[in-house]
Specification:
The protein is an alpha/beta fold. It has 9 helices and 10 strands.
Length: 244
């Protein structure tokens, strides 16, 4: 994207995806940016061992991901495991509605984040916090990717309006496994801070984080939130789980 828009490079500053996407938006418009993102993330890649492992677990999961691709969905489909997909929206015409693909449905429903029939006890739900591609209708794709997108999303988070209420209780009362998230993920930081302030959050629950590399600062960050952090590559973690 930087090459296509002739993004003004600064040798003293690394290229940030959010900044390049913002510039692309200014230069070519949002529609062209979304089309470019669709072409990038809809390529026919192979699901990773992690995707396959999650799809093979015989229990309903709540999977929250910031990825735009559909590798998780492909893995669950390959394993013939039912799943719903819930996508955060950025389209101003949709507003704060969520797009909810029920298992087997060809079209999504637009649902209110605080009033939906999404069930977490019957089948896996994949919540795509930063949006997702849509192979059937590319114009329906949603992406939280520009600087403005992140500002709007973080603003909604601080108002407790970004996380659907159906996921509120799991955030407070379930163990979590964080895979590949670090201190640079501000969305995660804001979510954890919001949970930490909630009087109903069960602070005794232990969760886990797998990331590499893991700094001493990040280890302390996780420790303060009762999260056991392990310095491991994701593939090593998956291999260890399969061995056990």
């Amino acid at each position: 994207m930087a090459l296509k828009t002739e993004f003004p490079k600064d040798p003293n500053q690394p290229l940030e995806l959010t900044t390049v996407a913002q510039y692309y938006h200014f230069v070519s418009g949002r529609g062209t940016l979304n089309q470019e993102l669709h072409e990038i993330f809809s390529c026919n890649s192979t699901s990773t061992p992690l995707h396959t492992l999650l799809a093979q677990l015989p229990i309903p999961l709540l999977i929250i991901t910031t990825n735009y691709d559909d590798l998780l969905e492909c893995a669950f489909t390959a394993e013939q495991r039912p799943f719903d997909v819930v996508v955060h929206t950025t389209d101003p015409q949709i507003g704060t509605q969520l797009l909810w693909w029920e298992y087997g449905a060809s079209e999504p429903k637009q649902v209110n984040p605080n009033d939906s029939d999404i069930r977490l006890d019957q089948k896996t739900v994949i919540y795509k916090m930063h949006g997702a591609i849509d192979r059937d209708s590319p114009k329906r794709a949603q992406f939280v990717i520009t600087e403005d997108d992140y500002i709007e999303f973080l603003t909604r988070m601080t108002k407790s309006a970004a996380i659907p209420s159906v996921f509120a209780d799991p955030f407070k009362n379930r163990h979590f496994l964080f895979l590949g998230h670090g201190l640079r993920d501000w969305n995660l930081r804001v979510v954890l801070n919001q949970i930490d302030k909630d009087p109903h959050w069960s602070k005794s629950l232990v969760s886990w984080s797998i990331q590499h590399p893991l700094s001493l600062l990040e280890r302390e960050f996780w420790k303060r939130r009762n999260v056991l952090a392990y310095d491991m590559l994701i593939d090593e973690f998956v291999q260890e789980l399969q061995t056990r």
